[in-house]
Fold each of these.
Amino acid sequence: MVVVSKKPVHSVLYLIFCFFTIAGHYLLLNAQFLAAVHIIVYAGAIMVLFLFTIMFLNMNAEVEPHKPILLKVSAVIAAGLLLAVFTGVLKGAEQIPVISGDGQIGMVKNLGLVLYTKYMMPFEVAAILFLSAMVGVVMLGKKDLR
Amino acid sequence: MNNLLNTIPVNDYILLSAILFTIGVLGVLFRRNAIIIFMCIELMLNAVNLLLVAFSTLHNQPDGQIFVFFIMAVAAAEVAVGLAILVMVYRNFTSVDINVFNKLKW
Amino acid sequence: MTQLTWLIPLLPLIGFLINGLMNKRMPKQLVGIVAAGSVFISFVLSVIIFFEVKNGDGQAITITCYEWFSAGNLHIDFSFLVDRLSAIFLLVITGVGFLIHLYSIGYMHDDEDYARYFAYLNLFVFFMLLLVLGSNYLVMFAGWEGVGLCSYLLIGFWFKNNSYNSAAKKAFIMNRIGDLGFLLGLFLIFQSFGSLDYSTVFSVASTWQTGDPTIMAITILLFIGAMGKSAQIPLYTWLPDAMAGPTPVSALIHAATMVTAGIYMIIRSNVLYMLSPVSSEFVAIIGLCTALFAATIGLAQTDIKKVLAYSTVSQLGYMFVALGVGAYTAGLFHVVTHAFFKALLFLCAGSVIHAMGGEQDIRKMGGLKKHLPITHFTFLIGTLAISGVPPFAGFFSKDEILAHTWAHSMPMFIILSITSVLTAVYMFRIYWLTFHGNFRGSAHQLGHLHESPPSMTIPLICLAVLSTLGGFIGMPSVFHAPHLLNGFMIPVYSHFEVIQEPAVTHRFEYALIGVSIITLIIIFIATRNYYVSKGKVPGEDASFGPLTTVLYNKYWVDELYDNLITKPLQWVSKNILRNIEIHLIDRAVNLFGGSVNFASNTLRLAQTGNMGFYVFVMVAGVLALLIFKLII
């Protein structure tokens, strides 16, 4: 629905719905923390950002001309092939044995432990990334760049 | 409820993820509104996230989830920057139709 | 002192570097002193070495400077060989060279490019010394090429004149043609004997059979090189044209030294030539034809230097005849005496030209005896020497060659005697026409006539003395005096018995001497009569009779070469090759550029700027990658 709806605002709303469902899957997969973060970050922050921009630029009621038919057909073919490839992977794959464990891996405590010990470095780098993103956005947002 | 994957085989998750991803690709290829395209990219990212979490549960290791965590972070930053650029472009072109952005040609 | 042999070529090389690099920044006197001085010191060293060699046992001494290169089986050292043959050549080169340097100081005094001239002259002496001092064929070849180069540089010394440049090019190219033969000979030598070293080659060769075809090929090829360098038929036409250079250059290069390089080479390779009677005969026949041919041309020339040039070609023919019949020492003897009197004659001609303000046509000269006394006297001595009048130098050497030829074959002897007669005739013709009779030049030239300065006349006198006394080193046995040169040269022919004394009876010797003296007296009187008393001066070019026209135009050999070789070559290179180049090569090169152009024109169409297109391509690319990974 995201893809096909005509009005962008509708697309956004459908996307938020998608996120919620995916968060549900996270819960099912014992990733509680992730589910929470997912909803907060994606559905809460990013989509709101999108909505802001759409409202800003007032592109709600928009009639956009369609792309030429050839492109659409070729796009469908390409995407279809992609799907075929992805699933074809499964053809000869063996069943990977499921390793059972307690359902604790998704708990905040465990995740935090791993995050701050093994993945300390990417954590810090992510911080820097955010810094640069912020700076970039502010820079880009100025009216006239001096 | 210990491990969902005892009931739902992991293959299905792979399939689901693939379908989501493909829908995202279709969206990117089909639409001409830049914002919609962005959202489809987000959709693709989410598909990948889903797959990662599924596999993390499969192997019973938290690494997959950590990775998803970082992906989310990066996605957030990327959206912020991308939208800023978009606004900038809108200021210059007063349109977000991607076919209008063809000044960078030969 | 022989250990210091390497100093002998080094000093002129240093002189070349100093004069060449400092060029116009040095005062002219200093240039002259540096140039002449370096040759003089080389001369002194050569004298010392000569005496050492003379008192030694005559064995060759090799002084190795350094190993030049070694590639595969070929090891070449840059080393010098000092033995009696090279000692004599050293003396001639440095001695006559020094005198000519001295002369040039006076002759080229007014020239702007004074330093460049002396630089080239020194370089030439260096290369010539390298040639005669080398202990293997490759060092000799280096000197061989080098003197060719210096000949080119010096002939075209006044490069602003295009015809001089053409003459220089002609000399160099003809030399090169000969050098091709020489190189092929070198290759064969290396292939047959495994080395280019004289000692190795000769000791191995002396074990071979006489008449071996390989040795015949080698000797003929080497002789082709000598044909080019020493101006024999068919590669002689460069020598008369080379008179375009300054006269001292003609004296040094084209009379005394460079042209004798071929002779040196053959004497050095006497082992090889003794092993191949066919090629020796070939050498003799070519020498004979050249001698006669050039002498006839010399009879009709009106330019004083051209007459001397043809005379040189003719005398070189003599020397080759001597070598061809196996009389190596006689050939060497004639080289030495010829160096003396030919250099003398050229320098006198230079003096005359200098006095006449640049005029070279003998039809405009005459009666110069009273204006140029020293020049006249020395020229007379030179003429007597070359004509073979006893007791001057030429008499002894020519006589010996004639005697050897008589012992070898009768027709050769007859032709050679005719050539001697012709030599005397044209030389005396020049002499009478230039120095006697009435002055035929313009009044302006008359006022300009003056004897040359001492720097020019002293070498003339020295050479005249040498021409007079030089003959006494090789007295024939009839005079019951030792043939010093023969005795001196014996160790050089260590591998073979070389003819020393001509196999003629004493009676024949006396007869020969008597006949030649009488003939010369007749020629003297007859020419005097014809040219002086009757005053028959050669007329203008158009008034020549048919025979004279043929001789004057040098049998049109130059024109023949031009039409046969030069013009077709030029035609080929101009027309056909230009077509090929334009249509083929340019097209090929342009094709490269064109294809790049085409490719870039096509590929730039991919930059549509269309975002959707880009994304699509991205997806397609990912897809292709995945398929690739999966299938392959």
Amino acid sequence: MPLLEVAELTRDFGGLRAVAGLSFAVEPGEILGLIGPNGAGKTTVFNLITGFLRPTTGRILLEGVSLVGLRPHAVTRRGVARTFQIVKPFPRLSVRENATLAAFLRHPARPAAEAAAQRVLAEVGLGAKLEGPASDLTLAEQKRLEMARALATRPKLLLLDEPMGGLTPREVEDASALVQRISAAGLTIILVEHVMKAIMRISNRVVVIHHGEKIADGPPDQVVRDPAVIAAYLGARPA
Amino acid sequence: MTLAAPIAPVLAVLALLALPLVATNQFYLHLAITVLMWTLLGAAWNLLGGFAGQVSFGHAAFFGIGAYTTMILYLKLGLAPWYGMALGGLVGALAALPIGLICFRLRGPYFSLSTLAVAEIVRLVALNWEELTNGPVGLLITTLPPVGLPGRPLNWESKVPFYYLGAGLVVGAMVATDRLARSRLGAYLLAIREDEDAAESIGIDTVRAKVVTLALSAFFTGLGGGFYGVYFRYVDPDAVFPIALSVEMVFIAVVGGLATVGGPVIGAVFLVTLGELFRERFLVGHLIFYGLFMMLAIRYLPEGIWGGARRALAARR
């Protein structure tokens, strides 16, 4: 059974169909890259899976159990965590507190939550920055903090929304390595990303969406040569 | 933690207990009781507004509900106002549940506006439901039931019992604030204040956290309303449901210091004494100076007087 199954997912905003009959599945342990041109509906898909938006129609199943209609906190409780494309730290709270708040989900007592928070912060490389406010971190560090916060909820499935967007090449390298480490630890990951080099290297499989529809689904090296994908990104070749 | 930390509250409580022995003048005692009532209200508002950052402009609704509950239970059912006050708080908290579930569908300024509307609705209900509330005529208590410590009946014509009653309520609200600040719920509220979507995404049931806190806040506000009714022995819709009352609660919490235990005391002392002073000095237009002071305080002390002082102290160390 796939860990996550999305079937015939559709979402309309007024007259605009942002996601149109999208179906895909994610197998346990996979890193699935979700790509597509700007406005393709990638972030909307994340918002639908995590309960920030309700599907107009369609099914979303985690280990065979529907997530549709659950509020975001309940989806997180079921084991799906996410990061945001535009980072949303708790800016005036310390880095440690940011992660502790997430760890409370599985550790109701503060000392246990703080210990768990410290572990995930060390894992993402923020072990030396625990006490300062989150607003003092660089963008790359804030993206790591978001990952730490998501990990602290002990998810089965992690949705990363552009974890490399806006980073320097060096920071992209580090972030790729981090995603691979998290994956090696047994987590299943869906990755929305525009940095093609990174996504092609670390994804096991890539799903391409365009105007809310799936236009390709396969291993990265195969997808990049797909004429439909090339047309979506560069425009169709004039006849 | 320094030694001063546990000693300061003890000293504050002792000073609170001793004040009526020093201030025998009825006017000062009345002023002190007024400060206590506003401290209670500021502290109650602060639970939701300070910690969760949810700015309610409608807390007069809970104040009025508490006041009317206390008065009606006494006048119609003969229930002593001491129980009535507690029930006033509970009815306020119960009313907060549906109000919260409706208003918390909205965020930010839209939430604030919806609370303003709710308070107006409640005021209009109180004004027009004459069988229950006596409408615009209001409700009047002529005599309070005798209450006595063994062998020593309390003198309700004196202000001293009210002073101690108010002091007890304020201490209760401050203990509740302190407990909230140390609890998981308190931590969740700060997360909600910082970023509601992020809070939801890490598994915090934000609606539930906000509704529970609104109910707690409404409980203390309702107690304050009951206290007002018993102290002044008269309530009418204009006295206990005005928008100005809601706004004053916001000011006290903001000027004193949001999400702090001691802030509302400072805010209440400042604003009550300042209000009296301006009223005395400038018979006409005293509200202009009051408003001007508010603007200065918000511009130059965004963390409130308590927060600003704490920061200044920390910087000197």
